[in-house]
């Protein structure tokens, strides 16, 4: 299958960080659309270690833990609002919604048809994300906010919600990584791009599947990932090619 067709038609899975019961990143709620992410840039064993970088998540009875729970409850007030709809869209890490959202703030169309190298670079970041946090997820096994709570969340209640750890947030890691890279390529729109990247993480709290401290941890690992990628020759080459692509569509 050609790259352009593959990127448009499928949603991506972050197999490296998923347990067998966790769904991969997807475009829709249809399980038949799940697939694995393309290979990342980093060789096995060379990614930063999230278990070393991150502190332990807060215990439920601490001030931070109570604040996390309060944020989950506050988010339930957003059901069926425009912000809820955005959270549903932000759950899609296939690239489709990300390209749309970032295109709006950059002011130019990005995606497999217009900026193929940049699109592939973003998707390879998805492939790199898992090793950064899989050990932390496995170590802490923090229950997700809706476990034992029947309040609405913006994703189907599938088995991964019960079995896959909440800390740290992979969506937040990826969204922030994308934003950091795009902010480097379009520095005149840096603030708007970083806001969009922040919103992807915030949407996980709105959605009800992560706590704020999960999101903060994901962003920290996203920054670590992008810093590491800047020492990878292939990433650097693709970044420069993507810079040229983006400049061309912004003319």
Description of the structure:
This protein is mainly α and 251 residues long. The chain has one domain (3-249): Phosphatidic acid phosphatase type 2/haloperoxidase (Vanadium-containing Chloroperoxidase, domain 1, Up-down Bundle), CATH 1.20.144.10. It is built from eleven helices and no strands. It is globular. The model is unreliable at 1-35 (pLDDT under 50).
Mean pLDDT figure: 87
Under CATH, the homologous superfamily reads Phosphatidic acid phosphatase type 2/haloperoxidase
What's the total helix number? 11
- Low-confidence stretches at least 5 residues in length (pLDDT < 50)? 1-35
SSE succession: HHHHHHHHHHH
Question: What global shape is seen?
Answer: globular
CATH level 1 class label: Mainly Alpha
Count up the domains.
1
- How much is the radius of gyration in Å? 17 Å
The oligomeric state is single chain
Beta-strand residue fraction: under 5%
By CATH, the topology is Vanadium-containing Chloroperoxidase, domain 1
